[in-house]
Write a structure and sequence with these properties.
By secondary structure, the protein is mainly alpha-helical. Helix content is about 70%, strand content about 0%. It has 13 helices and no strands.
Length: about 300
C-alpha cells in the first residue's frame, strides 16, 4: 500500500536559524562597503604571507629567518635573484624575516586582542548586570588601569625583569587593554537589562546565568568584535614599538625587531630595502584592521547605512 503524497498545504516550511539570517544580512551590508572589501583584501594578503612563512626554511636552510646565513654574502646587500628583498648585515634573507614577522604580528595582535576582549566582555557584563558595589569596584579598577600607559608600563617591567618573551608581552598587552571594552559593554548591558524581553525572561523563570548568556551576550558580541579589530592594531603597534626600542623577545623575528636591527647596525639610511618593508607592513596591516572596523561600525549602526546609502 503506497503512502499518499503530501499536498503543498501539508508541507511545513523549514524555519531558518535567526543567527544565520542575521549573519546573511550583516554580510550583505559588509560586502557592499568599499572600505570593508579593501580591508579584507589587504588582510587576505597578509594571511597568505603568514602561511608562506613556513616555506623558506623548507626550501633551503639558508632562508631561515633567524639562523640562515648566505655564505656568499658578507654584508647587507640589495635585492637579487637569490634574495628578492636583499639581505641584512649578517647575510640573512630579508623576505624570510618579513614573512616570519607577519606570522608573529597575527599571533600577537589576535591573541592579545582576543584575551582583552574576553576580559572586557566578561567584566563589563558582570558589572552592568549585577550593579551595586560590585559594579562600582570593577569600574574603578578599570579607570585606574585606563590611566596607565601600556607601553610605558611594559617598558618598566622589561627594565626590571629583563627581556620579556613574546607570550609575556601578549599577556601584558591584554591585561592593560580590557578597561575600555568593559566600559562600553557595561553600558550596553545596562541598556539591555531594562528591555521588555529581559523582563519577560525573568517572569518566565530564567536564571541570571541564562539571562546573561542567552539574552544579553548575543547582543553585545557584535560590538565586542568591532572593538577587537581596533585592539588588534594596538597590540601590533605596541609589540613593534617594544621590539624597536630593544625590549622585545630576541628569539623572535618580528617587524619591530627588523627595524631595531636596521637602526642598531647603522643601516637606517644606507639600506632602504631593509628599512621600508617592515615599516610598510606595519602601516598596511593596521590600515586593514582599521578599514574592517569602519565597515563593522556600519554593520552595527543602521544610521550609517542610511547616510552611506548601503541599506
Amino acid at each position: 500500500m503506497s503512502a499518499e503524497p503530501q499536498t503543498a498545504s501539508q508541507v511545513t516550511p523549514r524555519r531558518r536559524s535567526p543567527w544565520r539570517e542575521r549573519f546573511r544580512e550583516d554580510w550583505l551590508v559588509f560586502s557592499r562597503n568599499p572600505l570593508g572589501r579593501a580591508g579584507l583584501v589587504l588582510l587576505s594578503v597578509f594571511g597568505v604571507m603568514a602561511l608562506l612563512s613556513f616555506l623558506p626554511p623548507l626550501i633551503d636552510p639558508m632562508y631561515h629567518p633567524m639562523t640562515g646565513v648566505d655564505p656568499q654574502v658578507l654584508y647587507s646587500e640589495g635585492p637579487s635573484v637569490r634574495h628578492w628583498l636583499g639581505t641584512d648585515f649578517m647575510g640573512r634573507d630579508i623576505l624570510s624575516q618579513l614573512l616570519a614577522g607577519t606570522r608573529v604580528a597575527f599571533m600577537v595582535g589576535v591573541s592579545a586582542a582576543f584575551m582583552s576582549i574576553v576580559l572586557g566582555v566578561s567584566i563589563g557584563m558582570v558589572a552592568g548586570y549585577a550593579g551595586g558595589v560590585l559594579d562600582t569596584l570593577l569600574m574603578r579598577l578599570a579607570e585606574i588601569i585606563m590611566v596607565l600607559p601600556t607601553l610605558l608600563v611594559v617598558l618598566m617591567l622589561s627594565a626590571l625583569f629583563g627581556k620579556l618573551n613574546i607570550w609575556t608581552i601578549v599577556l601584558l598587552i591584554a591585561l592593560f587593554r580590557w578597561p575600555g571594552v568593559s566600559r562600553v559593554i557595561r553600558a550596553q548591558t545596562l541598556s539591555l537589562k531594562s528591555r521588555p524581553f529581559i523582563d519577560a525572561a525573568r517572569v518566565a523563570g530564567a536564571s541570571h546565568a541564562r539571562i546573561v548568556f542567552r539574552h544579553i551576550m548575543p547582543n553585545v558580541l557584535p560590538l565586542a568584535f568591532l572593538y577587537m579589530t581596533f585592539r588588534v592594531t594596538a597590540a601590533i603597534v605596541i609589540e613593534a614599538a617594544l621590539a624597536f626600542l630593544g625590549f622585545g623577545d630576541p628569539s623572535t623575528v618580528s617587524w619591530g625587531m627588523m627595524l631595531q636591527w636596521v637602526w642598531k647596525t647603522g643601516h637606517m639610511f644606507q639600506a632602504p630595502y631593509w628599512l621600508f618593508p617592515p615599516g610598510l607592513c606595519i602601516s598596511l596591516i593596521t590600515l586593514s584592521f582599521y578599514l574592517l572596523g569602519r565597515a563593522m561600525d556600519e554593520v552595527l549602526d543602521p544610521r550609517l547605512r542610511e547616510e552611506n546609502g548601503t541599506v
